[in-house]
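$ ./design --mode recover --in tokens.txt
reading tokens...
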């Protein structure tokens, strides 16, 4: 964690010497669903900041409340990466500062490419607090969005979790996104006990 924070700070210092673009986002949703799994039964409030440079370097941070086994805490995601053309590679750290004893922290290497209207990604487990090694879990995903009207986009997602020690899982969803900031989505997965999640969100960005 300390090494990653050092690298994160270093990347921000690099941005200071180049032309950087800063963007922020904030959102409220009735349910935070991650890869087909609920991260807490109830309202989630999140926000983040992203910095990108003309050189292709980018970095950011994102935070949200989560609730695991009736234990309310928060998730902090820190990420850095580089984009050249339509291909990006990055490093993402998932931190749960209030639950360090529970072993929730993990990190991933992210490789993604934009091919036409589709974004294809692979998230490769880099390290975890629990007993797993590099590459033991890989999450593949395909995302696309299409403009229905000038004010409405229709987005589709499918993801596949390739587990080393467990059954593989697939999650899928679609959402209707409005220029006003509202979105309505349906998310489900192949888990035996999974029921569809109906997600309503409102987002702001700048």
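writing sequence...
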């Amino acid at each position: 964690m300390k090494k990653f924070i050092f690298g994160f700070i270093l990347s921000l210092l690099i941005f200071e010497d180049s032309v950087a673009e800063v963007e922020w986002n904030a959102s409220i949703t009735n349910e935070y669903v991650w890869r087909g799994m609920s991260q807490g039964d109830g309202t989630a409030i999140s926000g983040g900041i992203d910095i990108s440079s003309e050189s292709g370097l980018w970095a950011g941070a994102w935070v949200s409340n989560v609730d695991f086994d009736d234990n309310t805490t928060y998730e902090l995601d820190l990420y850095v990466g580089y984009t050249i053309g339509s291909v990006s590679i990055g490093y993402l750290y998932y931190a749960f500062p209030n639950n360090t004893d529970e072993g929730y922290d993990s990190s991933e290497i992210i490789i993604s490419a934009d091919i036409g209207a589709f974004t294809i990604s692979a998230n490769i487990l880099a390290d975890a607090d629990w007993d797993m090694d590099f590459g033991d879990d890989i999450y593949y995903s395909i995302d696309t969005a299409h403009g229905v009207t000038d004010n409405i986009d229709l987005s589709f997602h499918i993801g596949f979790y390739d587990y080393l020690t467990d059954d593989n899982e697939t999650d899928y969803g679609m959402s209707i996104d409005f220029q006003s900031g509202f979105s309505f989505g349906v998310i489900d997965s192949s888990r035996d006990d999974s029921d569809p999640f109906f997600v309503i969100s409102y987002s702001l960005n700048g």
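exit 0
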